[in-house]
Write a structure and sequence with these properties.
Keywords: Leucine-rich repeat, Membrane, Repeat, Signal, Transmembrane, Transmembrane helix. Its main location: membrane. The structure is a single chain. By secondary structure, the chain is an alpha/beta fold. Helix content is 35%, strand content 14%. It has a six-stranded mixed sheet with strand order 1-2-3-5-7-8, with no helix packed on it. A two-stranded parallel ribbon has the order 4-6. Strands 9-10 form a two-stranded parallel sheet. α3 packs antiparallel against α5. It is elongated and about 115 Å long. The N terminus is likely disordered.
Length: 234
Amino acid sequence: QAFFCLLLCVPWGSSCPPSCQCTERAGAKVVLCSSQHLEEIPKDIPRDVVFLKLDANSITRIPSNAFRHLSHLEELDLSRNAIEKIDRAAFKGVAAGLRTLDLSSNRIRSIPKEALLALNAKLRLANNPWHCECALQEVLWEARLDPDSVQDITCHTAPQEEYVGKPLLQVLDAGVNFCSVRQRTMDVAMFITMFGWFTMVIVYVICYIRHNREDACKHVDYLKSLPSTQAHAE
């Protein structure tokens, strides 16, 4: 009876993942899962965790709702992993309370802006092989980035070779606007499409006119070939 009473009294979420260390810091739950060769986010992280360290592992993806049950989470360290993909709803459920998110030193080339712009957390995005584009530019302008790491957000690839290897902030300060480049590209594509449709309509009209003209000429020739009324009378 005492054993079952103990089970009932243990709060849900108080267990600790086998590969992690759970402790407390100033009364707040801390879960340390650093350097544990993890390939994905543990499923049994305590619900009352406040500080979560998953750095220096082999995690490659942050799926949707990965931390949704961690409503008390304030600091999340995902640095020094192999993260390549982050889903749009990766941080759904923790966006309001998260104060720090470290995604530095991963393999992130691009990220849905919806995944980050909903956060109030201070972001660290340095040392990733970023592809400089409109979405990353919007994140840089609108998200709360750690000022100490902004200069290390570098263009690994870019629409133009001259931007490769340069800090994104430096490129934008020089007046480059990746969003306007994308808009111009879309405008050109739309213009080409409209021109194609317009050309097809013109060709159709010309063919239609020629066809009607040929029919009219054939009809006239046919009428000329008929015996005239006068000749018939004679």
